[in-house]
Every structure is written in structure tokens, then in C-alpha cells.
Fold:
Amino acid sequence: MCLAMPMKIKTIDGKTASCDAGGLTQSVRIDFIEDALPGDYVMVHAGFAIEKMSEKEAKENLELLEEIQNAL
Structure:
């Protein structure tokens, strides 16, 4: 099973962004995101940002993922 992860864009170089979530930094393709800027939150799946999201949505998703991890 694959899971999408909310991440925050730190820097952008062309169509690649350096994104961060919980101390994990990953290089992510942003081809599908219009007007991506550092500071934006994106949902990342298989190395691609697939959706822009608000900070509130991202934090809610991260909290839910943490709850799932703690339950396991």
C-alpha cells in the first residue's frame, strides 16, 4: 500500500523541490503544481507533489498519521 504524505516546500530548483516533513527531507517533482512557492504545503505521493494544501490541512493530516503510527 502506498500513502501520500503532506510536506512543506523548502526550496525550488526548476521542477524539483526540496520538501520537509517531520525532519525528513525529500527531493520532490512539482510538475503537477501550478505556482508552487517555498512555504507551500503539498501532498506527496511516489516522489511527486500531487496537490497543494493549506497549512491547516497539512497539520491535520500529519497529526492523523502520527495517531496511526502510535496505535501500531
About this structure: The first strand starts at residue 5 and ends at 13. The domain at 5-71 is CATH 2.30.30.140 (SH3 type barrels.). The chain has one domain: 5-71.
